[in-house]
Amino acid sequence: MSKLATLQTHLQQQNFDAAFITHPDNVFYFTGFRSNPHERLLGVFVPANGQSFLICPQMEVPDAKEHFSGNIIGHVDTENAWDKLVASFTVPVAKLAIEKSHMTVERLEFLESRITGATFSSIDETITEMRLLKTPEELVELRKAAALADFAIEVGCKAIAEGRTEMEILSEVETAVKAEGADGMSFSTMVLSGLKTASPHGTPGNRKIQKGDFVLFDLGVIVNGYCSDITRTVAFGEPSEDQRKIYETVKKAEETAVALVRPGVLAKDLDKAARDVIEDAGYGEYFTHRLGHGLGISVHEFPSIHGENEMALREGMVFTIEPGIYHPEVTGVRIEDDVVVTADGVEVLTKFTKDLIVL
Questions:
Q1: What is the rounded CA–CA span in Å between residue 198 and residue 342?
Q2: In this structure, are strands 213-219 and 230-236 parallel, antiparallel, or unpaired?
Q3: pLDDT single digits (tens) 14-73
Q4: Domain match, 160 and 123 both
Q5: Cys staple from 133: which of 20, 198, 296, 316, with CB 3.0 to 4.6 Å?
Q6: Does residue 309 share a domain with residue 204?
Q7: What's the longest Cα–Cα distance across the chain?
């Protein structure tokens, strides 16, 4: 059954007349068409019964036709796209499912003003559940993205040299990855050095690499619409005893959590396993975020792997495992892998070594 047909079955079961899907990632999921429409209207209208249609900026219609075989409604900047949308409805709409997590108040008011008396309900949970378990075809793309992420870390390590800046290394990494065929980066690439590594979401800049630095790479690569996300931390010059202890603690925490992955294990237990290792080593206060997050078309998607999530892991789920220690006076270290839950355990998609590299 196609993804659109699966969604239509749900709409029928819930007595919806139709759904209007607007998040670009979900439009891609259902149609294969990837677009960044900016402020313009993009969406796929899915009736409970009948043919779906895509609405997008007129200038993107030729590209959309390469991916979506259904009817495509284009709109130009001088038109009111919302009027054109409603005029194109293929069924009467009294109960419409929308993505409440993506629909702005302004856009909802546009719809309310044009569909008199209609009610609007969330379709978010249904789509989240559909995207949660990856198909074999999706896993093929995720493996490709992970392999390019491994390559990116290798390029980054080779680019490290005394006096080179974080931004110089970052630029070399992104250029190499795109030359290998990546669609782009999953998010803003992070190359941090020295004590800047102690900021979990630090900003790369013109700091020059110095002997004794740890250098942290956090990056992701998009391949055919699917994302990877990897973090590795390496040493430039012989690390201090404190730096090495922090590194080995994070490595143990990460490997402990990865080894626990299998169907039926609770998400919170992964977080606890990694956190216990870090707390037992005396660094608990320096691990300041959740263990990981879902991964797929979006670089951050469901589920959230944190200490309160009692969701049981299921075969086909893909997520990150990324413990870290961020000591502002010593160094920061994070190690992150992308994993998929298999029938009897785990497959680690990112394969770059986790042994401490000393350059």
A1: 34
A2: antiparallel
A3: 999 999 999 999 999 999 999 999 999 999 999 999 999 999 999 999 999 999 999 999
A4: no
A5: 316
A6: yes
A7: 70
